[in-house]
Amino acid sequence: MRKTTIVLAVLVAGFAFLTVWTWKKLNFAPVSETTLRLSLDNVVESLDPAKSYSDDSLLVSAQVLEPLYQYHYLKRPYEIQPLVADGLPQILNKGKLVQVKIKKGIFFHPHAAFAKPRELEAKDFVTQFKRMALNELKSPGRGLFVGLIEGFDGYNDLVGGDWQKIETVPLKGIEVKDKHTLIIHLTKSEPNIIYYLALNFLSPVPWELVQHTKNNLDHTLIGTGPYRFKGYNGQYFDLERFRNYREDFYPTSGDRYANVQNLLNSSKEKIPFIDNVKFYITTAENDTWQKFFNHEIDLLTVPKTFIPRLYDANGELNPEIKKNGVELKHFPILANRWLAFNMKDPLVGKNEFLRRAIAYSINYEDYIQVISQNTNLRANSILVPGIAGYLPAKDFRFKHDPALAKEYLKMAGFTEKNMPTIVYSTRGNQGINILEADLIKSQLEKIGLKVEIQVLPFSDFLRKGRAGELMFFTDNWLFDYPDAENILQLLVSTNFPGVNKSAYNNAEIDELYQRLKETMNPDQKDKIVHQMEEIIFQDLPWIPMMYESSFVLQYPEIKNFRKSSIIRNYVKYLKIEK
């Protein structure tokens, strides 16, 4: 017995020695977990897919939740591809019936609501459609389906606004053909329906989770994605790689940029690569900047107020940045920025000449210089480059003309003795928002207007804006999908209160918007868009200012990064190689 023990001990010791020797001899690197640290600019009020619509909340959610479709990470123009759907949708009955197959063997992250591992089913999408129809959630995506899905408009009344009834009360336009087949009945054809099915709003939500949380998912995030949500500790949102994530792989093709930038080196490799992700909330721009250079954040979208720090007097990359071995990249994004009026406001909304006076008071060149250091382009349209219907040769509708602005003030009924006070509300309380406010104030005061600045945190700006409580403000839009309809919806009367912060109401615009949604012919769509734009420029709820772009600083160990305002589920493609 003793001899056996001795022999075993010798064998174990020998095996251990051999293992260590082999490890060192072959120079195997020790296996260690990787962590990606990112920053958020604003407090996230809700993670509920039916409600979350800020860029920060969508960035966190997109790593956890999975709608039916996504965009190809490495192709421009943007290309839709299946995510949890098993292929592209079948469009039947002249576009009024949409059938989607769902992949089998996809499971939700573990949660107390589930008695056992919970497979994704078609009914989970039905539950989310029903939730979006409820008035109490005030879903920003609800307007996409009003008048489009059979029975959607009246579903809230059908259940009496009671979320507990949605499990048993059917929604006429959404049904389950079988466990993995979803059927959507539309009242009319919708050319952009596949884009809608790629939105965060329509991420699947199991009924068990709704019941467990009493339909309050503001702080609950359970999905089928590559990362599972561990919680928020007061400083950061904590995510970890979902160990039971299905097999998925890095793209094998891409556009010219992807090839030139070596973004295909990870082709065919299993994703995700990174083990942990932490989203830090740093509302102060100085703190964010410092955290990055302290290597507490790995990727930094450069705040606009810090753009001057990127380059020296000769236009070369700042030596302070160079010495840190940091890479600087500049990306175009599908984003527009404009000045907006509340059309229900008795002062600015009811006086077209006052709005025109303001439009001609702005020095657009100074604005772009101050806000973007001339790295952005002045907007000549409501659309942005890269969106069908955009005309690059379109003239700028307004110019800086103080004399003409003063003439419009007179036509508006104002003189030096009775100049009105304009209340300008900021789109956040960061340095760039204050800088922008001061610039707008100085421009308007030069023609005699009085300006009061109301500094608002971004969350208050959204709440007040969607309720129609702002007078005059700057707004911007990151396109959710690459179609003109996506931004024009912000000026449709049925979207107020809501995303139509200007409370704009024009029956002709509403009618043209419906025609745009139903039109399949690209040339006809462009014609409708241009017609709508002319009406909007006449009514002037908005003054287009500039097209936004993005500077990103990243440490060289971060691989595969490509900025996009539409693709938010990009973390699964990133790799850390130190």
Can you lay out the helices and strands and say which pair or pack?
Blueprint: H1 2-25, E1 35-40, H2 55-62, E2 69-71, E3 80-82, E4 90-92, E5 97-101, H3 123-133, H4 155-158, E6 174-178, E7 181-185, H5 193-196, H6 207-213, E8 227-232, E9 236-241, H7 256-260, E10 276-281, H8 285-293, E11 299-301, H9 319-322, E12 327-341, H10 352-361, H11 364-372, E13 377-378, H12 402-411, E14 421-425, H13 431-445, E15 450-454, H14 458-466, E16 472-478, H15 485-488, H16 507-518, H17 522-539, E17 542-554, E18 558-559, E19 575-576
Parallel strand pairs: 1-10, 14-15, 14-16
Antiparallel strand pairs: 2-3, 4-5, 5-7, 6-7, 8-9, 9-10, 11-17, 12-16, 12-17, 13-17, 18-19
Helix pairs in contact: 10-12, 16-17
Describe the structure.
By secondary structure, the protein is α+β, with helices and mostly antiparallel strands. The protein is built from 17 helices and 19 strands. Residues 19-30 have low confidence and may be disordered.
